[in-house]
Specification:
This protein has helices spanning 114-124, 143-146, 166-178, 245-251; strands at residues 11-20, 29-31, 33-37, 40-41, 47-50, 69-73, 76-80, 87-90, 96-102, 105-111, 129-133, 139-140, 152-153, 161-165, 193-196, 206-214, 217-228, 255-256, 262-273, 278-280, 284-289. By secondary structure, it is mainly β. The strands form five sheets. It has a seven-stranded mixed barrel. It is built from four helices and 21 strands.
């Protein structure tokens, strides 16, 4: 007999895909499983590229960052990009303290050294340095959206996790095709967890998602804030070229009154239960719908 996970819930589904983005705004890696910590999936957004003043850099101004493909291999970070030699950074190397800025937060970090700085500067065409988050520092998500709960994150835009659903992307792609545009992949939206079994944008309408991680254990993710979208989804992650079709299409149906009409896709989430457990593709999920 098949037992449904929380059969009393409004929605049942599963984890369809998992992504980690080791270096903020560089290419992500799709994985079959990932350790969940209170700051998100390990090692999501653990590193960040900054300019000469220590201010974070993203694809918003440097689309070529999409072509940098980081890989965590054991205790090392390996960087790859077109026309560049692979660079392996040893995580055990003696760190150098730094102070960096990500959005409105100025936080302590660890500089990864001159080799990484030269590599990124050469590829991006301006002075850069690569820093790693300081695990001793708790950069907290906005309490206005977490209900006062402390939810630390590393170098993400503001919250530990970003979630989306396959149905939401399918809906967008149908609209793109109807307008004569090519379909796009989920990679453009840079989520961590992608759900199957929901209807389009059901993730907007649930408060807490429960995930069955096995042996009677559950992870609880609370979906707290719609994800406002900048021009990054218009950037093709395979070429770093930009076309406005995605943003223009979203603008026709995804203006969100919760964010004063900003264009949104996906939901930011915090970890309410289950830090230290492993999320895997295929794990069952359950959630209840909630409406304002």
């Amino acid at each position: 007999m098949i037992v449904t996970f929380h059969p009393e819930s409004d929605l049942q589904g599963s984890i369809a895909r998992l992504f980690v983005h080791p270096v903020k705004s560089c290419a992500g890696t799709e994985v079959r499983e990932a350790l969940l910590t209170e700051t998100g999936l390990e090692p999501d957004r653990a590193w960040m590229v900054v300019d000469a003043q220590g201010v974070f850099l993203t694809q918003r101004t440097l689309p070529r960052m999409a072509l940098v493909r980081p890989e965590v291999a054991g205790d090392a970070l390996v960087l790859r990009a077109p026309g560049m030699p692979d660079l392996r950074l040893d995580a055990d190397a003696a760190p150098v303290p730094a102070t960096v800025t990500v959005w409105n937060d100025t936080v302590p970090a660890w500089d990864t050294g001159d080799a990484a700085a030269r590599w990124f500067s050469a590829f991006l065409g301006q002075p850069c340095r690569l820093v790693r988050s300081d695990p001793a520092h708790r950069r907290l998500s906005s309490s206005d959206w977490t209900g006062g709960l402390e939810a630390p994150n590393r170098f993400s835009d503001g919250f530990p996790l970003l979630v989306a659903s396959e149905a939401s992307l399918d809906d967008l792609n149908q609209r793109l095709q109807a307008a004569g545009h090519a379909t796009v992949g989920m990679e453009r939206f840079r989520p961590n967890v992608v759900f199957a079994g929901m209807q389009a944008h059901d993730e907007d309408r649930v408060d807490r998602v429960r995930i069955d991680t096995g042996a009677g254990q559950e992870v609880h993710l609370q979906l707290v804030k719609p994800c406002a979208r900048c021009p990054i989804p218009d950037i093709d992650p395979a070429t770093a070229l930009s076309h406005p079709a995605v943003g223009d299409t979203l603008r026709t149906y995804r203006q969100d009154k919760r964010l004063a009409g900003a264009i949104t896709f996906g939901m930011n989430a915090i970890v309410r239960q289950g830090a230290g457990q492993v999320l895997r593709v295929g794990q069952p999920i359950a959630a209840d719908l909630c409406f304002d």
